[in-house]
Design brief:
single chain; globular; 4 strands; four-stranded antiparallel β-sheet; alpha+beta
């Protein structure tokens, strides 16, 4: 079954519940920048997210330098933001907030 892309109204509603996330300029993704105490904490966070992402078969795009992790969530199969991204964003928020 194909993964449905969120409508603009659905994306707006979802983002209202994700205050730490920012829509990308093209509206096809959401992003969050995180800063941790050090590299070990950042890497530990990434490892926890990786385990959840693998089980969900939905993987983030991310960039890590020392204590910073920039996360971008989009669903390539849907051509943009999907409910999978919203769910993974909520999981990420639960790990860090």
């Amino acid at each position: 079954m194909p993964i449905a892309r969120l409508t603009p109204a659905e994306a707006e509603t979802a983002l209202a519940t994700l205050p730490h996330w920012t829509p990308s300029d093209d509206g096809l993704a959401i992003t969050r920048k995180l800063v941790f105490a050090d590299f070990a904490e950042a890497f530990g966070f990434m490892a926890r997210v990786a385990l959840v992402a693998e089980k969900a078969d939905h993987h983030p795009e991310w960039f890590n330098v020392y204590n910073r992790v920039d996360v971008r969530l989009t669903t390539h199969d849907a051509g943009g933001l999907s409910q999978r991204d919203v769910e993974l964003a909520r999981t990420i928020d639960a790990f860090v907030d």
